[in-house]
UniProtKB/TrEMBL annotation:
Presence of keyword ATP-binding: no
Family, as annotated: Belongs to the DNA repair enzymes AP/ExoA family.
Organism field: Pseudoxanthomonas composti
Protein name: Exodeoxyribonuclease III
Gene Ontology biological process terms in this record: DNA repair
Native organism taxonomy: Bacteria, Pseudomonadati, Pseudomonadota, Gammaproteobacteria, Lysobacterales
Catalytic residues as annotated in Swiss-Prot or TrEMBL: Y112, D153 (proton donor/acceptor), H254 (proton acceptor)
Segments passing through the bilayer: none
Residues covered by the Endonuclease/exonuclease/phosphatase domain: 10-254
Gene of this entry: xth
DNA sequence: ATGACTCCCAAAGGGAGA
């Protein structure tokens, strides 16, 4: 096997890893990403499909949870070297929403940010608190001399360009001014939003809900993000969304989002 | 628009998602 000149790093909210296992494996076989962050495993640790993932050529670490949430990191022909499995700052947090590891020379934080609906309300308050914790932890990564990325389902619509109908999503937690401002402040630490930096003013989506044939009609949101610290951003080559995965039978409501970086 | 659609658990219908 020839060694490729770029590394491919991807994030994919699978919406139930066991319900979607064949979709996930088909996509891995197609793209052959080097590092993958998964969200919404919706399984306990013991139910993670480790053997099927390993047969596909990937080492994995994961943090599951019964019924909801759950995150994992996969590395092609390697096992991610875990550095964290909880976002610091709240000892009472029992939700599986963060996992961090080194893989193929890059520090990867894989995250599943709380949805926050309905808003206003306690779930929305929790979302903002989780984002504040993310800010504090991200500060420790952004200025590392080593390449680092924060990737996953942020549940944040960064701007009106990132939603097919801003008015229809006006009251949604993903689209609130406080949430957008918090995301913007995170970027101001020095993170590069890889998709936006390459697409410029062109619209691109990563999620389409299951209603009203929104996927087929490309009425979506951009809420899955790839953030690069400066040491990694200089190596960014290409980005993409594998929208075809969203159009397959039995698909997740999210599509995989990927970037290629120089080795 | 208390909607729709799909997962989970569990064994029906409710919680959660976004």
């Amino acid at each position: 096997m020839t060694r490729r000149r770029t590394l491919t790093i991807a994030t994919f909210n699978v919406n139930g890893i066991n319900a979607r296992l064949s979709n996930l494996l088909a996509w891995l076989d197609y793209l052959k990403p080097d590092v993958v962050a998964l969200q919404e495993l919706k399984c306990e640790d013991a139910a993670f499909p480790r053997e099927a993932i390993e047969r596909q050529g990937y080492g994995a670490i994961w943090k599951g949870q019964r019924a909801w949430n759950g995150v994992a990191l996969l590395a092609r022909d390697a096992v991610p070297v875990e550095s964290r499995r909880v976002l610091p700052g709240d000892a009472s947090d029992r939700q599986s929403r963060y996992i961090e590891a080194a893989a193929h020379g890059i520090v990867i934080g894989g995250l599943y940010l709380p949805n926050g609906n309905p808003q206003p309300g306690p779930k929305f308050d929790d979302k903002l608190k989780w984002m504040a914790r993310l800010h504090r932890h991200a500060r420790t990564l952004v200025d590392l001399p080593h390449p680092a990325a924060l990737i996953g389902d942020f549940n944040v619509i960064p701007s009106d360009l990132d939603v097919y109908d801003p008015a229809a999503w006006k009251k949604d937690a993903l689209n609130q001014p406080e949430v957008r401002a918090s995301y913007a402040r995170l970027l101001e630490q020095g993170w590069t939003d890889a998709l936006r930096s390459v697409f410029g003013s062109e619209q691109v989506f990563t999620f389409w809900d299951y209603f009203r044939q929104h996927a087929e009609r490309d009425r979506g949101l951009r809420i899955d993000h790839l953030l690069l610290n400066p040491a990694l951003a200089t190596r960014l080559v290409e980005v993409g969304v594998d929208r075809w995965v969203r159009l397959e039978p039995g698909a997740s409501d999210h599509a995989p989002v990927w970037m290629k970086i120089q080795r």
